[in-house]
Every structure is written in structure tokens, then in C-alpha cells.
Specification:
Blueprint: H1 2-18, E1 21-35, E2 40-44, E3 52-53, E4 58-62, H2 65-120, H3 127-158, E5 160-161, E6 164-165, H4 166-184, E7 186-188, E8 193-196, E9 205-206, E10 211-228, E11 240-245, E12 248-260, E13 271-272, E14 275-276, E15 290-297, E16 311-317
Antiparallel strand pairs: 1-10, 1-16, 2-4, 2-9, 3-8, 4-7, 5-6, 8-10, 10-15, 11-12, 11-16, 12-15, 13-14
Helix pairs in contact: 2-3, 2-4
Length: about 325
């Protein structure tokens, strides 16, 4: 009996102290609520509830016709913008040619004026000829200023800012935005996972940003095991863990401690109206708090799939 008591005591020591153990543990996986980026009627729903899907598999299709029409309209406006840009470029070329012509006329008028002014002293020309030539020079210079202004207006109408044509850029951005909305009509799986909470059928109206279904991420599974606070000093990240699931009593799984929770919500002392709310009662029996320990599960086999919410029993192999 003494020997049995010693053996039993050693077993209990290893079970509860040397290797912390808890049956307050559950299997978890990350989830994603899949929503449409555009609004419209769901016209195609090729999946079923609880179905496994791979990354990029089609989940559902929002009616693409209005978005395709918007895309075609944007492409038409882009083509018209390209035609307008060519017209503006021709206008700029014509304005530049006119400016060059006006500069030549102004240069000829100035040269003629410089040639006849000395002749006025010898009475080879009249003063009226000089005045008329000066007026022609002023008119030619005014024509240069006007032609320069017309050229500048034509260049501004072209919409160039640096090396980028802003008219063309705006039209191209409208096409890209319409193309993006058209692509958003086809909603695909962002990762490998399981479809869950699918309670709609084709014909349902999908609202922008409103979840249509939920995907359970099949890439990473983990267990949240809740250990008593007096066991935490024997648990460290990187330790190996033995995991048993009630769903598969004859199968054992392996995991690794990823981290230990840093905080718990306490109702007693919570802030109410900016002041701490403290209970007036005092419990003589102090219960240990339980902190979540995250244990990453190693991939199992297809005959024993993991499911969210499965009850687990976890033993940390600290020694």
C-alpha cells in the first residue's frame, strides 16, 4: 500500500504539477466573413454549406451587367478623350504656327522701322511714313502677345501636368475603377477553408460590405487551453503539448505552445461612469483564474479533421 501510494503520488505530481494538464480546452480556427465589394443580386451560387473550397475558387457572383455597362461607358469616354487630346494637339500646333508667323511679321516691321528712321533726317521718307511703320510694329507686337495667349490656352486645354496628361489619366482611372467593380462581381475564396453559415440561395440581394457567408480558415488550427494561474510558471512558448479530442478518443494529436494570454476581463473593478465599480462582498474561497494558452496543432490526417469548438484535453510536456 505504501508503494502504491508513492507511485500514485508520483503519477499525480507528474500529471498536475510537472506536466500541467487541463480539460478546459477547445479547438479554434480563424474565420473570415466574406462580403461583396459591390451591391446587386446574386445570380450564381456554386457552393454548398460546409463545403471545402480552395483559394481563388468562385463563391458567388453578383449581377455583373450594370457594372459591365459602366465599364463599357468608361472605355468609350476614354476613346473620346484620346480623340479630344489629338484635337487639342492640332490646335496647339496651329497656335504655335500662328505665333511664329506673328513673330516674323513683328521682326519685319521692326527691321523696316530701323531702316527708315535714319532716312527721315535726309527727307527720303516722310514723318507720316515713320509713324505708320511704328503703328504697324505695335500692331505686330500685339498680335504676338495675342498668339502667345492663344497658344497658352490651347496648352492648358490639353491638360498636361508635367509629363502626364491629366485628361487621359482621369479617363483611364475611370476605366480602372469600372474594371475593378466589374471584377468584384465575382467573389472568390481568399484562402483554403470551409464554407459555413451559408443560409441563402441565388436571387438574394448582396449589400455592399454585408457578410454573405463565413469561411473557416483550414490553413492553421489551434487549441485555446485555459490553465490555472498557478500552472503558468511551468508553461513556456515552444513547449510540446499532447492534445486529445473527445471526438476521436483513440487518436492523439501533437501541438506546440505559441503563447500565453496577457489579460482577463474583470467585472469587479470595471469602470462605470468613469469610476471603478468594486463589489462590497468578500469571498473567503479564492478561485484560481484561468488564462488562455494558445497551442498550434500539427496537421492531422483526413480521417480525423479538426472542427471549431471540439472539446480537447491538453497536457504540456514541460519535463
Amino acid at each position: 500500500m505504501v508503494l502504491a501510494a508513492v507511485v500514485l503520488g508520483y503519477f499525480i505530481y507528474r500529471l498536475y504539477y510537472a506536466n500541467p494538464r487541463t480539460d478546459d480546452a477547445y479547438v479554434h480556427a480563424n474565420t473570415a466573413a466574406v462580403a461583396a465589394h459591390v451591391s446587386g443580386q446574386i445570380v450564381k451560387l456554386p457552393i454548398q454549406d460546409n463545403q471545402h473550397v480552395n483559394k481563388s475558387d468562385l463563391l458567388f457572383v453578383v449581377d455583373p451587367r450594370p457594372y459591365q455597362l459602366a465599364l463599357d461607358t468608361a472605355k468609350t469616354r476614354l476613346n473620346l478623350t484620346e480623340i479630344e487630346i489629338k484635337t487639342f494637339q492640332d490646335t496647339i500646333d496651329a497656335a504655335a504656327a500662328q505665333l511664329a508667323e506673328r513673330k516674323v511679321e513683328a521682326a519685319n516691321a521692326k527691321q523696316y522701322l530701323d531702316r527708315i528712321v535714319p532716312l527721315l533726317a535726309h527727307d527720303f521718307v516722310t514723318e507720316n511714313d515713320v509713324v505708320e511703320t511704328r503703328n504697324k510694329l505695335k500692331a505686330a507686337e500685339a498680335a504676338v502677345v495675342s498668339a502667345t495667349s492663344e497658344l497658352r490656352k490651347a496648352q492648358d486645354a490639353l491638360g498636361m501636368l508635367g509629363d502626364v496628361n491629366q485628361r487621359l489619366r482621369a479617363a483611364q482611372e475611370a476605366v480602372d475603377d469600372a474594371q475593378l467593380n466589374s471584377d468584384y462581381c465575382f467573389v472568390r475564396a481568399p484562402f483554403d477553408g470551409y464554407v459555413t453559415n451559408l443560409n441563402i440561395s441565388a436571387g438574394q440581394y448582396a449589400n455592399l460590405g454585408q457578410p454573405v457567408l463565413v469561411l473557416v480558415d483550414d490553413r492553421d488550427w489551434y487549441v485555446l487551453a485555459y490553465f490555472r494561474e498557478d500552472q503558468l510558471d511551468r508553461i513556456r512558448p515552444g513547449m510540446q503539448a499532447d492534445v486529445s479530442l473527445l471526438s476521436y478518443p483513440d487518436r492523439s494529436f501533437q501541438g506546440e505552445v505559441e503563447g500565453i494570454g496577457w489579460g482577463l476581463f474583470q467585472q469587479n473593478g470595471a469602470t462605470v461612469g468613469g469610476l471603478p465599480n468594486v463589489e462590497e462582498t468578500l469571498n473567503w474561497v479564492r478561485l484560481n483564474q484561468r488564462f488562455p494558452v494558445r497551442i498550434v496543432l500539427k496537421r492531422g490526417d483526413s480521417a480525423h479533421p479538426f472542427r471549431m469548438g471540439q472539446t480537447a484535453v491538453v497536457t504540456i510536456r514541460s519535463r
